[in-house]
Write a sequence for this structure.
């Protein structure tokens, strides 16, 4: 089950990155357009894989923290999900801040971080991935 949850988070974050890539190129949303320099010299799947790996590396830390604090690796109900998200947001915030501070993806994200700041949107993306993956696994995967 935990492997499925990790894999789903990888796929959700990849798909989300592909959507962001398309939205950034469309110029319809000023804030998202700040991601254009990041996506400019990357194949669409390259950026998506980076997003997936970033989310998975943060998720593994969350899984370990959750086991330590809550005694479960992943949420199995809505209450567990809420507990998980209480830790996921600050962890995602810290992760995004460290990506910014250590310039992990180079200067291509400078405009994005200058305009939107570091932390919040990375945390939101992480939380989004967890929520979507949780409900996919809970309601869709068992049907297959």
């Amino acid at each position: 089950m935990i492997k499925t949850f990790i894999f789903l988070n990888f796929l959700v974050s990849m798909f989300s990155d592909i959507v962001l890539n398309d939205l950034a190129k469309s110029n319809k949303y000023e804030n998202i357009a700040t991601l254009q320099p990041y996506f400019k010299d990357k194949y669409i799947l390259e950026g998506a894989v980076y997003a997936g790996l970033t989310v998975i590396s943060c998720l593994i830390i969350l899984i370990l923290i959750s086991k330590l604090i809550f005694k479960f690796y992943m949420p199995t109900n809505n209450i567990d999900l809420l507990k998980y998200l209480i830790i996921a947001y600050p962890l995602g915030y810290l992760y995004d801040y460290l990506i910014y501070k250590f310039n992990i993806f180079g200067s291509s994200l400078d405009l994005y971080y200058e305009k939107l700041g570091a932390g919040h949107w990375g945390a939101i993306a992480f939380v989004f991935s967890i929520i979507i993956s949780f409900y996919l696994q809970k309601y869709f995967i068992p049907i297959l």
Summary: The chain has one domain: 2-138.
